Amino acid sequence: LVCNPSNPTGTNYNIKHLTQLVNTAEALKVPIIADEVYHGMVFEGETFHPLGNISTKVPILTVGAISKRFLVPGWRVGWLVTHDRDNLLAEAGVLEALRKLTQISLGPCSIMQAAVPKMLTGIAPEWTAGVMTELARSAEACIRRIEKIPGLKVASKPTGAMYVMVHIESGAFKGVSDDVDFANLLMKEQSVVVLPGQAFKAPNMFRVCFAGPVQMMEDAFDRIAEFCSSKYTDPSKGAAEVPEVVTPENSDCGATVPCH
Length: 260
Fold this sequence. Notes:
4-stranded mixed β-sheet; disordered C terminus; 36% helix; 4-stranded antiparallel β-sheet
C-alpha cells in the first residue's frame, strides 16, 4: 500500500523512490494498492507521479476520490482504477470480485455522481493552483510556529497534501505520558484537535491538518504554544532537586514553625 502524496506526513515521493517501490514489489511478486486520493496536490516545484505510469509489470489498483482534491470532505465519492499488467488480476479473479462488490454496496447519491464529471473535466487548473498556494502558506505558518515551541519538532517538512507530522520530545511535558495524552489534554484545555501518531503506528508524534486559512492556523498554534509552555520541562536538565523543608522535628534551631 503506497499513499502518495502522503497522509499523514504530507510527503510527495520523487520518481526515484517510487521506482524503487515498484521494483521491490516486482521482486516480491506482490501487487500495489496506490492510494492517490491526494492526486496532484503538491506544492510549487514538486511533481506528482502516478504509480500507474511507472509500473510496466506490477499490477496496480489506484484509489481516487474527490473529497480532498476538490475540498468537499463530506462527499464520499471515489473510484478504483486497475492497471492490470499481463492480466494477472483478471486471471486471479480480482476484477470479477470488485465488480460484484460494486453491485452489492450502496453508492453515493445521484447529486454527487452528477457532479463528478464536471469536477474532473471542468475545473480550471488555476483553481487547483490557487488551492495549493494557500495550503503551502498554511504549511509554512505551521512549520514556523512548531520550530519555535520547545519540546516539539517537525518530523519532515510537507511537500504536498494537507498534513504535517510533529515529534514530541520524550519527557518534555509534565503530566503528558505519550501522544494520546498530549492530544487529549490539548483538546480539553485549549479546544485544539490533533491526531495522535499512534493512529499511524508512529508513537510520540501527532498529525496537524493545515487545511484551514493561515490566520486560523496562527490562532491554533497560539493555543498549542500556550499549552506547551504551561507544561514544558527541559528533559536535558533532568528532574529539578526539591529543597529540603526543615521542620521542628528535624531541626536544632528551636523554632516552633518550619524553618527553610
